[in-house]
Amino acid sequence: MVYVGQMDCYENCSEVLEKLSGVQVGATQIYRVTDLYGKGIEDSVDAERALTPLKQDEMLYTQVDGSMVLTREEGWKEVKVGRFFKSCDCIHAG
Question: Which of 57, 76, 78, 88 is most buried per CB count within 10 Å?
Answer without folding.
Answer: 88
